[in-house]
Amino acid sequence: MPRIVITLGDPAGIGPEVTRKALESGQLPAGFEFEVVGDESAGTPGQPDERSARAAFDALKEAARRLIAGEADAVVTAPASKEQLQRAGFRFPGQTEFFADALGVDDFAMCLSGDRLTVGLATIHEPLAKVPELLTVDGIVRTGLLLAKFLARKGGVPRIAVAGLNPHAGENGAFGDEEKRIIAPAIERLNAAGVACFTGPEVPDAVFRDAAQGRFDGVLAMYHDQGLIPLKLLDFDTAVNVTLGLPKPRTSPDHGTAFGLAGKNLADPSSMIRAIRLACEMVG
Fold first, then answer.
1. pTM of the entire structure?
2. Among candidates 164, 173, 85, 95, which has minimal Cα distance to 131?
3. How many helices and strands (H and E) does the chain possess?
């Protein structure tokens, strides 16, 4: 049977709880083997420290090793604190970049998918001040193609809106020229590839409403919070984080460690259940 490896995340957070609840939910597909990696005893609920961070880091390294060795068909990662991980020697902005590096992948992207929205990110964990200089035609095209491939698994030609960077999508250059100089040329190249129908640059403050109402299958956002704020508003309990471009699927629930909730048996496993189900779907 295909094997899905699940990391516990930081054991001081809700990762162990949502993992356990997901496995006991009866909502996971049959025909898969689920294996949990991580040391739950390395953390005290609600009290993250270097030991719990190291346990989270060790679990990630073991999951990556199993993917590389062919001992896992997909990985689902429970939440880990980026701040705590970096104190334990983790040198990446997030788990997305860690798995891309571990698997030797340069062409990757971060995508989040819920019941109402699917969002791809042209830039990921970057300071907002750096986003304009990081946006390139090639980068937007690369992310757009990965997002189109992910959406196409549902069948048909995906309809993808490309968000502008500036207010009112630049207002014809009044509020910035990135739309004309970078985003519009990228959209032309994406449509020339013929894998999806890309529109834009769309006005950022309206495009997510249009997508939630069914006009688009996905939105390509220019930076992290532009895409994640509307997604978490509408799909917080159902959204899944997917690393696009890896040779094997990696998903995770779209919430954090919730250290303040840990140990109280109040954590909602819905996003973890969805993350595991999507990993199974992508393997199958």
1. 0.92
2. 164
3. 11, 10
